[in-house]
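Protein modeling request. Please complete all fields; requests missing the sequence field cannot be processed.
Requester role: graduate student
Desired output: 3D structure, token encoding
Chains: 1
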Amino acid sequence: MDKYRKIVYIAEFIVIIAVFGLMSTIRLADHYINPKKVNNVFSTDPENPLEEDLAYSFWGKEHFVNINGAVRRILDQRLMNNVVKLDNGYLFTSFERASDKSLKMYAEETVRLRDYLKERGTELIYVTTPITSSKYDPQIPEGIEDHGNENTDRFLALLDEKGVEYIDIRERMYEDGIDQYDMMYRTDHHWTTEAGLYAYGLLEDYIVGKTGCTVDRRVADISNYRITRYEKWHLGSRGQRTGIYYAGIDDYDLILPEFETLLSSGNGQEAGMQELMVDMKPLQNRDYSSRYTYDDVMKKALGEFTNHKCENDIRILIITDSMGKVVVPYLAMGFKQLCYSANSDTSGITPEYIEACDPDVVIMLYYPDCLLDGKQAFSFRGF
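Delivered output (383 residues):
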């Protein structure tokens, strides 16, 4: 009888594995036959696309991740799928230490760009965004090693030595009495839409101070916006690895101007800020299998814009990553002309490009992972 029972258990196990394997194979085949954007994250090895595709296609993966995360939360385990839960419950991915060689090279590239811009009368400002773990209140569990804030401090020290102007948003939030964690998502590495408006206010002050231009002060004042909160809507890239129970689900705030705006995009489309930059589709149906609420709602924001209701003639070039998605809309509403370049590959930032854009101010607004070894965020050419 015991032998029979063992055979039954083994057969049931094989059937279960076969069903999951078959369904996963079908999903994988569909993924390759009908390519589509992968709206979740699981693989930690970008050098192994097959592993990522298999993880994406695994049938019922989200349910297993959710159960795993729930159990780990009950057991108060602080590490899951390379994601660290901070003491305050926020999810975090630790940073390796950037080499001195890389930081020095990145600083030298920035100085070369600054010197070229200075000769043509253009200002350069480097802006570092915060990481989830605050420099002033890290909340990192014992035994976890992280160098994210340290990397940033070392790099800013090099810029300081060379006289490159920068805005350290970590420091500015601290000085302004803002709890940095209130400006970050619990399950994502991105900052919130309100943080983007805060960063714009700092940039507006800097640009006005450097150029003496007139600006529409309504743009930096949050009281001039309508804020719509989508509760428990955004499960970020770290939440995708740990499920909906491990750290919860983030609210998402949509911030839209209540004053009239009129912009035109690089393709010639003319409309208000919302029509040009905001995609409302991700806010119509809640989908916890997608981490792209942040990315997709403002996916049209990174581009070139002309402001037809502007009080100045200031032209801005912003070189940024996805953190800039919640800053660019305000820059476009605050200044006359906005050019954009992705910092994932800055080889297109050449003297010819600068002359064509003809900026009064160049903004480098970067998430600190750009400082890790081998990054291309400082690959300027011809300066």
